[in-house]
# Entry
Amino acid sequence: MIIILPLDENKTDICVSFGRCPFLMIYDTENNSTEITENSAANAQGGAGIKSAQFIVDSKADALITVRCGENAAEVLNAAGVKIYKPEGISAEHNIALLKDAKLSPLTHFHAGFHGIQ
Amino acid sequence: MKKLLILSGKGGTGKTTVASAFIHFAQAKAFADCDVDAPNLHIVAGVDAEPQKSDYYGSQKAVINTDKCVSCDMCREKCRFGAIESTDEKYKVNEFSCEGCGVCVAVCPTGAVTLADDVAGKVELYNGECVFCTAELKMGRGNSGKLVSTVKSTLQKNAHDAPLAIIDGSPGIGCPVIASVSGVTMVLIVTEPTMSGLSDLKRILKTVTAFHSRAAVCVNKADINNTMTAEIENYCEENKIPFVGTIPYDKQASVAINAGKSIAETDCTAKQAIKEIFDRMMRMMEVTP
Amino acid sequence: MKIAVLSGKGGTGKTFVSVNLAVAKNAAYIDCDVEEPNGRIFLKPVDCKESPVFAGLPEFDESKCVGCRKCVDFCRFNALVFIKNKPAVFSDVCHACGGCSLICPTGAVTETMRQIGSVEQCKYKKTDVVTGILNIGEASGIAVIKEALDTGLRLNENAVIDCPPGSGCAVMESISASDLCIIVVEPTAFGFHNFKMVYRLVKLIGKPCYIVINKEDAPYPPLDGFCAENGLPILARIPFDPETAALLANGELLYGMNDYYTDLFDKVVCEVKP
# Structure
């Protein structure tokens, strides 16, 4: 299973913003590998959540663990079959373990877009 | 951090006057001005220090290199925003109309058009005893939504320990308002007892509820037309929107503001009324002052 | 003559000045404050015709799509996504630039139209009343402003353009077609601060500028000083008056009903020249 988490500047804590988080963690349960990549959507003028969601879909992720997720991003993820979960606490590592143990609940509240456009 | 956003729909109803009073009553350690088109909170915020200033980059804008341009007119023809002008076969991009879509870059046969970074405004952060973030959009610019988001995230980043943040919003129902509503705990709409005020109140309420936010309403300068005030209160009741109070018209407000002070720093009837509304809002948001 | 009325700060009296001036001048009244259009509250116009305002939206033909994703990569607004081998668009993020349909190598992307607002064309006695209305939830009213101006300016070469508050792109669009600007200012610290911002905009575009000081309780020296230094003619100083406020609160048109304001606006009409 491929799990993605938005990360803070410190690359350890889960970032509260998903669309504009500075880094993304890609964790593969099959080989226990972790990859941390810069989030190219962070500085987007608009549609940051959409762009981040597209990246997640392109990474062939199965799950996203995030505090917040916008409606537009959620629509993308749902269409692609990516499941979205709520974290407990802020540690990325801890939440990956929780998800592996099926101890995380799904995220059900999605906020409206920020409309960072003209 | 609980965030209270102050909106109005119609301009000039008293958002900033109420916001500055709330900041004073709450002894708030975090506040922001999201009216990036016409920021005013800094005039009465009583923050003295020098702020950290940073450039705000909006969309990139197209730039034409006249040396490479062969005046084929493709860019002007394809531009949906009328942003490319030509005088005597010399082509220029209008920085105000350009939306940075890149169509001109794509259609130019000689690579004469490129997209370049454009400073669309500035963000100022006062980070001392209180954290106050404000911003100003360069005139004629768009991208106000992202600038508003930047102000909010800057505030969040620098004052995450603060229990309460007060955010002064902008008039209207468009992009900067929509951007400011996201993620706030509650919205207080300050309206005035006029037909325009009621009409605009209806539109801003629709906007706020469309974006899943809780709203409450108060009427400022209420005694200039008590009938309208009652009509607004009825409207709120019929639509199950909490009506949290009225503020009388008070000349002391402009006297205080013109002296660079919050109305809460003077002794007047409006101050008392605003304090009661403040107390109600704090109870609704479950904030212990 | 096309006169744009603007203010910077909201609530200074743009609409009050615009509607009364339009009637006094026999000019078309064009409401460009498309987020919160209020002129019709005062003019109560009749015989209304409504025309929708559209923005383009891409449509995808799956049979022609080869999955190259050039459309998704091109979109600078991140309005397009590619899921399960199909492109899709988020209409509220799309800027209708036409880039995706242009860039598609197989003609799989075409454009359809979606409604973002409307323009109402009505009449108050002999005055044409044109109102731009932006639909709730739409982020940008620029296209609606353009349509409203287009409609209004075709009806009458004399027009009064009621602008949105602030000094952003919507204001810019509203004043672009005008011959001159009237800035309505409140003589207070807030009013003066925002007035300076909008004055810079007017100056930048090179429009001649007149001032109306409204709701004056007492003179505000920094404002008077600024107008004197910059040679800005003050067309009128309207005192704050609770009775006037009450009438306006009830959506009353004052020109033709109230002698003081009828004279005042007649005088403004005479003094304004581009």
About this structure: Chain A has three helices and five strands. The beta strands of chain A are 2-7, 23-28, 33-38, 63-65, 83-85. Confidence is low (pLDDT under 50) at residues 114-118 of chain A.
